[in-house]
């Protein structure tokens, strides 16, 4: 497993960059906003909640009220960023919420009819993330210098988790990030796509998370630890298609060192990957 360090000087290249991120008013998003501003970047933050009053006049920060589950809101976020700065260098699809759905006990409406389980978390944490990345690609692919997209996954996308909607979303983020990075590379699109998979981190995913963690004697990592990983993926031009596991403030690349090597072992020597088979199918001349 390739563990690495993040040096402050390595992040200095973000000075002057334009970064769009979602969920920037609290938790990991807020820590990332503050870090980027301290590095001299300009930040366009989309969130349903405004930043704290003390930050509304912060130079370099533009807040746009955004519900990532709403396509019109997301479209407006990117349009305003483009209009204000003329370009978009980096995007951090970060917005998310905590578990919502109960798949073992369906609720009923006033007439006693069974109701569909809520998909609110999936709409925000997966569909909203996919739409954020798609808009990022739209704006960045026309720039000669391309850009960088960082996707907020979770270590829960690597393991079973009893919070099923959260687990589903984060497994989906991992699959989306791995696939989009491969597709961008094949298409020659000058955009780097990387995925973060942090373990328990101080955030607003659960109410009073800090108090809950104290109650079980577990210490989550600070939001800044994950913010630094997000900034690193924006800054390091060699990062493409990587999956970064963040736990206890340590950073490990696991796509090239764990995930894909595990698949290579499972499929067996000499067998083509599913992606290789798809490549061959796409190369078959149309009849």
Automatic annotation (TrEMBL):
The keyword Oxidoreductase appears for this protein: yes
Keyword field: NADP, Oxidoreductase
InterPro entries: NAD(P)-bd_dom_sf (IPR036291), SDR_fam (IPR002347)
Domain of life according to the entry: Eukaryota
Isomerase among keywords: no
GO molecular function terms listed in the Swiss-Prot or TrEMBL record: oxidoreductase activity
Family: Belongs to the short-chain dehydrogenases/reductases (SDR) family.
Name of the protein in question: Uncharacterized protein
């Amino acid at each position: 497993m390739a563990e690495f360090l993040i040096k402050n000087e390595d992040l200095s290249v973000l000075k002057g960059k334009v970064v769009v991120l979602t969920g920037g008013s609290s938790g990991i998003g807020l820590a990332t906003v503050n870090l980027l501003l301290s590095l001299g970047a300009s930040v366009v933050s989309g969130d349903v909640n405004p930043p704290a009053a003390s930050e509304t006049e912060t130079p370099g920060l533009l807040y746009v009220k955004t519900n990532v589950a709403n396509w019109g809101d997301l479209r407006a976020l990117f349009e305003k960023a483009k209009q204000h700065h003329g370009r978009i260098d980096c995007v951090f699809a970060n917005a998310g919420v905590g578990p919502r759905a109960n798949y073992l006990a369906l609720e009923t409406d006033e007439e006693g009819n069974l109701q569909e389980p809520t998909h609110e978390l999936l709409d925000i944490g997966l569909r909203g993330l996919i739409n954020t990345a798609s808009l990022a690609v739209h704006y960045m692919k026309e720039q000669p210098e391309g850009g960088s997209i960082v996707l907020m996954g979770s270590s829960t996308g690597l393991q079973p988790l009893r919070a099923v909607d959260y687990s589903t979303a984060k497994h989906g983020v991992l699959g989306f990030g791995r696939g989009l990075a491969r597709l961008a590379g094949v298409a020659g699109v000058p955009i780097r796509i990387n995925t973060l998979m942090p373990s328990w981190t101080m955030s607003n995913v659960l109410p009073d998370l800090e108090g809950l963690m104290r109650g079980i004697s577990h210490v989550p990592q600070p939001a800044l630890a994950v913010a630094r990983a997000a900034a690193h993926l924006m800054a390091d031009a060699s990062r493409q298609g990587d999956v970064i596991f963040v736990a206890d403030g340590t950073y490990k690349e696991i796509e090239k060192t764990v995930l894909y090597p595990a698949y290579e072992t499972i499929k067996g020597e000499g067998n083509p990957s599913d992606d290789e088979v798809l490549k061959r199918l796409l190369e078959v001349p149309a009849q």
